[in-house]
Specification:
Elements (H helix, E strand, L loop, with lengths): L1 E8 L2 E7 L4 E4 L5 H7 L7 E5 L5 H4 L2 H6 L4 E3 L1 H8 L4 H4 L2 E3 L12 E3 L2 E7 L8 E7 L3 E6 L12 E7 L4 H10 L6 H8 L5 H9 L8 E5 L8 H12 L3 E3 L5 E3 L6
């Protein structure tokens, strides 16, 4: 199995897990042409696309996937928001999953050989989720972005893709220094909707990382983060190989690292 990072920023997010004859897409916020190129235009192998929430940098390209008859999966609240922006023909590609009232974790469902368990996240959107994904080739994968913290912890992890959006101190300095057009109000919105470096590290340490092969840091802020510093801080804190999810990054995502 291979992970392809197609795009990972506030300008657009798209990722693909490509294995033997089947591909799972995650997020639909970047031009679909880039995803098609990354997976060798093998549309027939796509088993579906998981979307975390309705914001444009995560779901703004759903219509392009619908044009290729790709099913897009999201929470009921997210599906409702996305559907309101699509013509009926495109909205027919939307699929959702059930949640017990008040539960943090949704029903588990399968897409090809992938087993997917959505879980609630904390963001300024209708019904945001992250995903715990398993596959015989990969073992457990955590995908979490656009959340200022995570309540659940996860067992049997082999791979982690997690938001590391900003450094709290740098965000504060930018807010009150009026750097990069930042304001205190915008800084507060970021604090209450995105995972900081500090919270990212504490979240990772709350989980059992004994079998994790690598950590991929995603959705970094261009102005409020430092990729090299974030990579070093997370690698030092966890003792694990750490990568920045830059466009074009491809990694082996096998259950064992060799």
């Amino acid at each position: 199995m291979r992970l392809h990072v197609i795009s990972s920023s506030s300008e657009g997010n798209a990722y693909a897990l490509e294995g033997n004859g089947e591909t799972l897409l995650i997020e639909a916020g970047a031009p679909f042409e880039g995803t098609l190129k990354a997976i060798g235009y093998q549309v027939k192998n796509i088993v579906g696309c998981l979307v975390t929430h309705e914001h444009g940098d995560h779901a703004g390209r759903v219509k392009e996937l619908a044009d290729y008859c790709v099913d897009v999966w999201a929470s009921p609240g997210t599906v409702e928001k996305i559907a309101g922006k699509l013509k009926p023909g495109a909205a027919r590609c939307l699929r959702t999953f059930r949640r017990e009232s008040g539960a943090e974790v949704y029903e588990t469902f399968t897409l090809g050989g992938f087993e997917v368990t959505p879980f609630a996240t904390q963001h300024d959107s209708a019904e945001p989720v992250g995903y715990y994904i398993t596959h015989p080739e990969t073992g457990g994968i955590l995908f979490a972005t656009d959340t200022y913290y995570l309540r659940p912890t996860f067992a049997d992890l082999r791979h982690v893709l997690i938001e590391c959006n900003h450094d709290s101190e740098k965000l504060q300095a930018n807010a009150y220094g009026r750097i990069h057009g930042m304001t205190p109000e915008l800084a507060e919105r970021i604090r209450e909707s995105h995972l900081s470096l500090q919270t990212c590290i504490s979240t990772l340490k709350a989980n059992d990382l004994a079998q994790v092969n690598e950590i991929v840091l995603i959705h970094l802020s261009k102005n409020n983060g430092d990729p090299a510093a974030f990579k070093k801080a997370v690698a030092t804190a966890t003792g694990l190989p750490t990568y920045i999810g830059r466009p074009g990054l491809t990694l082996d995502f096998n259950i064992n690292p060799f």
